[in-house]
Design brief:
With 107 residues, the protein is α+β, with helices and mostly antiparallel strands. The chain has one domain: Transcription regulator MotA, C-terminal domain (Aspartate Aminotransferase, domain 1). 22% of the residues lie in helices and 28% in strands. It contains two helices and six strands, in the order αββββββα. A six-stranded antiparallel beta sheet has the order 1-2-3-4-6-5, covered by helices on one side. The chain is globular and about 50 Å long.
C-alpha cells in the first residue's frame, strides 16, 4: 500500500513551524525535507526516522520497523503526537547534512 497524498500532507501539517517543509515522491513513497534536509521517510502511511544516537532518548519508546526491503531498521514516529514530532525534527535538522548536489553528466 503506497502512501496517500492526504497522509503526506497531514505529516507536513503536524511538523509545521519547524522550518521550510516540502516533500518529494521517491520510488513510489515520500521523503520529507525540512530546510532542504531529508528528515523523514514516509512509506505505506508510516513515518520513519533514521536511528541516530541524538534521537535515541526521545524515541526510546518508539516501535522499530524497516521502511522498505533492504533498508536498515528505523524508528517509527507517532506523527499524531505533534509535540513529539516537532521535538524530533528540532533534534535532527541541525545534525542532518544537505544532500550532495547531483552532477550533471555530459552526453
Amino acid at each position: 500500500m503506497a502512501t496517500s497524498v492526504d497522509f503526506i500532507e497531514y505529516v507536513c501539517d503536524q511538523i509545521r513551524g519547524t522550518g521550510d517543509i516540502r516533500y518529494r515522491k521517491m520510488f513510489g513513497e515520500y521523503m520529507v525535507y525540512v530546510n532542504n534536509k531529508p528528515i523523514l521517510l514516509v512509506c505505506d502511511n508510516t513515518v520513519y526516522v533514521k536511528k541516530l544516537e541524538c534521537v535515541d532518548k526521545i524515541m526510546s519508546d518508539a516501535s522499530l520497523g524497516v521502511p522498505y526491503k533492504g533498508a536498515k531498521e528505523h524508528y517509527i514516529l507517532n506523527i499524531d503526537n505533534g509535540d513529539l514530532s516537532k521535538d524530533v525534527i528540532d533534534i535532527l535538522e541541525p545534525v542532518t547534512a544537505l544532500p550532495k548536489p547531483k552532477v550533471k553528466k555530459i552526453k
